[in-house]
Design brief:
5-stranded parallel sheet; 4-stranded parallel sheet; Rossmann fold; globular; alpha/beta
Length: 371
């Protein structure tokens, strides 16, 4: 066992095959002491080693149910934060590459949101009239902000239920950081587009007049996913001109125009389940991350299903792609040698308030409908 932490430099030039061998040996040694989580968007070279695969929140919830000492999250930073907040104090969460962030999550930060809240308070009583909702794809301190203000968190799976609840509690919603998920969800609930306004955090008062703020039911933070932003309605038109019997399925992080042309709109899990349940020989055009689409294509080709990627150019999550075999082998080899690198921790105060928002989300989504 090494007395010093192994530096990443020693892994930087290792081949993928050498790293695969290191990862396999480490998993054999660590056994149930270490749990590898693999997000659906992860590259296959890393995804193949995951003990559990899925969406970000599902992975954290599953990790919390285990007794694994080490949780190696092959995802991005906000996901590892959620895992740290939901798991026990005895469990240690590790992110193979600490620079694996999320460009959309980075578009909303605590100072900018607090400034927006102050601006809203200059126009109306924000604490009484505005419900803050943050997408799970956000920093822990923004989840904590929602917890402090009586707000909550949503995923792409439960966004409709969360937004409906929020508007039953207060007159308006401030939704961050993804404007597209907010817009598509609000529209699905019957809220007209002219009752939505984009909050441009780069401008005073979000670039809105007092009248526009008063009129809006849903204030949409001017953020977006760099992957889902690339899909365009003309991609659908061109594809259907060639394959008129094809079905289109889009993640709600795609823009409104794309989602309006889609046959199905849904989360990553819904995309997977819909294609899995479809008839043999069916053809799908999918608006979500490239690694997942390619994996679905391979998974269902034995049923003669065709799963095609919507954009004509490569569109993968570049920050997720930072987690490569070299980084995973590095953290695993250190664990074998009793060393922890890239541990992700969220302070107790932030965890307390963020978990209030998370608990509120669980209560809303699991509530039984009144008969």
């Amino acid at each position: 066992m090494s007395e010093t932490t192994i530096r990443f430099d020693s892994f930087f030039h290792k081949s993928d095959e050498d790293c695969f061998d290191t990862i396999r040996k480490a998993k054999e040694i660590l056994k149930d002491e270490c749990l590898l989580l693999g997000h659906y968007y992860q590259r296959n070279e890393v995804f193949q080693f995951a003990d559990i695969t899925g969406d970000s929140l599902k992975l954290s919830e599953q990790a919390a149910k285990t007794k694994a000492k080490y949780i190696v999250f092959c995802g991005v930073h906000f996901m590892a934060e959620v895992a740290d907040m939901l798991t026990s104090d005895e469990q240690i969460v590790i992110l193979p590459d600490s620079k694996a962030g999320c460009s959309m999550a980075d578009m909303a930060n605590r100072p900018a949101v607090e400034k927006a809240w102050e601006s809203l308070n200059s126009v109306l009583d924000a604490d009484a009239k505005v419900m803050p909702i943050t997408y799970i794809n956000s920093a822990a301190n923004l989840k904590a902000f929602c917890g402090e203000k009586g707000g909550t968190i949503c995923t792409s799976s439960n966004a409709e239920k969360i937004l409906s609840w929020a508007l039953s509690q207060r007159q308006k919603v401030l939704f961050f950081p993804d404007q597209h998920l907010g817009r598509n969800t609000a529209h699905a609930l019957g809220i007209p587009l002219d009752k939505m306004a984009v909050w441009n955090f780069r401008k005073p008062n979000g670039g809105l007049t007092s009248e526009q703020i008063e009129k809006a039911q849903v204030l949409l933070w001017d953020g977006w996913c760099s992957v889902h932003q690339r899909f365009a309605p003309e991609h659908i038109d061109d594809y259907l001109a060639q394959y008129p019997d094809a079905k289109v399925i889009a993640h709600p992080e795609a823009c409104f125009e794309v989602c309006q042309k889609a046959d199905v709109i849904g989360s990553t899990s819904k995309i997977l389940n819909t294609i899995e349940a479809s008839a043999p020989g069916s053809r799908w055009l999918v608006a979500t991350e490239l690694n997942l689409v390619n994996r679905l294509h391979e998974q269902f080709k034995h049923e003669n299903k065709v799963v095609d990627f919507m954009a004509p150019t490569v569109s993968m999550c570049s920050t997720m792609f930072r987690t490569d075999p070299q980084h995973l082998a590095w953290v695993m080899d250190n664990l074998v040698n009793g060393k922890i690198v890239n541990q992700i921790t969220v302070d107790k105060k932030t965890t307390e308030y963020a978990n209030q928002a998370l608990q509120r989300m669980f209560e809303i989504t699991h509530a039984k409908a009144k008969v």
